[in-house]
Amino acid sequence: MEYARTNGAVILYDAAYEAYITEDLPHSIFEIEGAKECAIEFRSFSKNAGFTGTRCAFTVIPKELKVGEVSVASLWNRRHTTKFNGVPYIVQRGAEAVYSPEGKAQVRELVDFYMNNARIIREGLAQAGFSVSGGVNSPYVWLKVPEGMTSWDFFDELLDKANVVGTPGSGFGPSGEGYFRLTGFGTAEATAEAIERIKKVFGK
Amino acid sequence: MVRINENYLKLPGSYLFSTIAKKVNEYSAAHPDSKIIRLGIGDVTRPLPKAVIEAMHKAVDEMGAAETFRGYGPEQGYDFLRNAIAENDYKARGVDISPDEIFVSDGAKSDCGNIGDIFGVDNVVAVCDPVYPVYVDTNAMAGRAGDYDESTGMWTNLVYMPCLEENGFMPSSPSGRRI
């Protein structure tokens, strides 16, 4: 935040996974002092309420965010109204229901379900001897691939020997090389089965 | 003759998750009996919450009656949703965001990719590394990333903020370059 304010930078903050924050941490960048002058926040109904195929999200641009005299929100408003025709009424009613008491409880159940998968993955990989991180405040678990292998080597080996598909870390940038990502978004059965297979193939 | 946006030609290969899907399809075609489990892309598997389904059913019925039918809506989203967001996602956490600062859209991916429209092409962009490929690719498409260097896997004009084991996977501010 300090860097952005000193340098006149804008922070583009993607908070699509905020529902997975379980520890006492901010959920929005705007909970941090001064963020309204230098940040834009992206949020989504995909990962909390399962809208990946239904499609609804939102972007927050505070009025305080200005470049010189120009309000960034007014430019986005101009773009949005020119290039976008709005989310279907039916879908927006669905998104509104996410905030009803029942909706909130049901979303909590979904998040807990996926976080439990993430826990099973994290613990299972650790038992199989992998060095793991993630799976806390996030539904993704990262493992370090065995010495001498690239992320894509591990992708091929995992697909071939365990018939499990994950995401090679190098696909996310050079610092991801040597790492591999698994998601907690599977079904409980598939997640458990995948971990059993991985343990069988890689377990020591 | 028409000219294309040549920045697209600089993009290496296809989108990450398309490459993965292609590899998996090839494997499955060669091994039709294999039971493949997909824990790659972050797509959810549980059905929509009941409260959502009920609300959408009701909205469908409204669309089927002349008195409650709706045509074009406000591009920024209906007030009922923007108010609910401001109230529950922000006010409840002590943050004052007004409904007119909220722009409802079809996806965070689209918005993250489109936000660059309102910023100059000559801005310097810094990204965490590793990161969601959409942030990088959309800036490359806009001509903000320079050229892709195959040997380093990096774009020449992007500033990378590495998230490594050494720094607890927490990036530090972009250094050595004023943005």
Describe this structure in words.
The complex is a heterodimer of chains A (204) and B (179). Chain A is an alpha+beta fold and 204 residues long. In chain A, 42% of the residues lie in helices and 17% in strands. Chain A folds into two domains: 2-99, Aspartate Aminotransferase, domain 2; 107-202, Aspartate Aminotransferase, domain 1. A four-stranded antiparallel beta sheet of chain A has the order 6-7-10-9. The model of chain A has no long low-confidence stretch (mean pLDDT 97). Chain B is built from five helices and six strands. A two-stranded parallel sheet of chain B has the order 3-6. Chain B has a two-stranded antiparallel ribbon with strand order 4-5. The chains are: A alpha+beta (204), B alpha+beta (179). At the A-B interface, strand 2, helix 2, strand 3, helix 3 and helix 4 of A face helix 1, strand 1, helix 2, helix 3 and strand 2 of B.
**Strand content bin of chain B:** 5-15%
The total count of strands of chain B amounts to 6
Low-confidence stretches of chain A: none
Order of helices and strands of chain B: HEHHEHEHEEE
Class per helix and strand makeup of chain B: alpha+beta
What is the ordering of alpha helices and beta strands of chain A?
A: HEEHEEEHHHEEHEEEH
Number of discrete helical segments of chain A:
7
Number of helices of chain B: 5
